[in-house]
């Protein structure tokens, strides 16, 4: 025999009452105090039905409520790696959608409301910000997306980059980030699409089961934050935008973004989310490049985003540059870890763009190494959980020391070169003086001969 969950049984009763209410007055409007008394019998009956159904479910050894099976970091990473390895444009969209839901701690239906007009790049936090609009509550909460501290596999900026550089036609979609989901907010279409995707991946991704649904991304992100000892409860609440009576207007106005960003950095695997996290930068290349290399990089970026929305060339340049930097930083990793790099649409796009710009794949690898080294240096302290048992900080300090020594050596060589130039100039001045005296003597000699 099949038994329905207590909540499902209550829904069937509510459906009957709703149908009757449409045919007979008063209508079932429980927000109206005058009508509430007319449905007191229904409220009491529904409460007793749920209570009885729960008791019976407990006696049968069943769960009283279907709780979402969390999709936490390790499982999410496995899903993302599988989707990226497919190498298709559709897979890049699906990976991006799942990561947006995880990092936003959001419900699947809300991903369909994301719009380019709501995006902004914050130079202070070096992260992307948007308003996460919730159809269920009618609120719009700030949320940030950060570069991952350790890997490309579940990096939000990397997923955005892969999606934007391989998807065409976004300029003609009224600003929607995910046009195929737009308009599905009231139909649960985005949630259904996510559930169908997860169901399709069962058996292909180790650890993913039929119990995992779209809500598991929200539950998994909440669990990951809750079990991070460096994230306080305030950051957890504000990142998920749960109702909290302790939040006053002034508190929310002054510190909300700080706590939201802290939660975002934790989801991006920064061991110390309260500290500043620096995103990968293209300036790592530009600052030390000659004019030819800087020109090649500029052409590559424009070619890579040639078919992306025009806003990346004007209002979201910082976001665009960070995405390109992330792609370059992980270029070698992607090539080495993807089963068939030649069939991957992202890697093909990157190689095609650099060739059309007059460069080679080795330029991508070289740039990526430069970006990675500076990224690790700028985040040296934040990337270390404990200096005594984590050699990343020591390695970064050694690298920084090497750079300082190299700079000093360069300065010494430049100083010695300048001294040699000064000596050369002095010798030239002396030579000019001697030449002037020689010319003067010649002039006097000519004068004497003339006399």
Protein model, in words:
This protein has about 450 residues and is mainly alpha-helical. It has 2 domains: about 10-60, no CATH class; about 70-385, Orthogonal Bundle (hpI Integrase, Chain A). Helix content is about 60%, strand content about 5%. The chain is built from 17 helices and 3 strands. The protein has helices spanning about 5-25, 35, 40-60, 75-85, 90-105, 155-165, 190-200, 215-225, 235-240, 250-265, 285, 290-305, 315-330, 330-335, 345-355, 360-380, 390-450; strands at about 120, 125-135, 140-145. A 3-stranded antiparallel β-sheet has the order 1-2-3. Strand 2 (about 125-135) and strand 3 form a beta hairpin. Helix 6 packs across helix 13 and helix 9 (about 235-240) crosses helix 10 (about 250-265). The longest helix is centred in the C-terminal third of the chain and has 60 residues, at about 390-450. The chain is elongated. The relative contact order is 0.09.
Topology of this structure?
Layout: H1 6-23, H2 33-36, H3 40-59, H4 73-86, H5 89-104, E1 120-122, E2 127-134, E3 139-145, H6 156-166, H7 189-201, H8 215-226, H9 233-240, H10 249-267, H11 283-286, H12 291-304, H13 317-329, H14 331-337, H15 345-356, H16 361-378, H17 391-450
Antiparallel strand pairs: 1-2, 2-3
Helix pairs in contact: 1-3, 4-5, 5-6, 5-8, 6-13, 9-10, 12-15, 13-16
GO molecular function: DNA binding
Transmembrane segments: 74-93
InterPro entries: DNA_brk_join_enz, Integrase-like_cat_sf
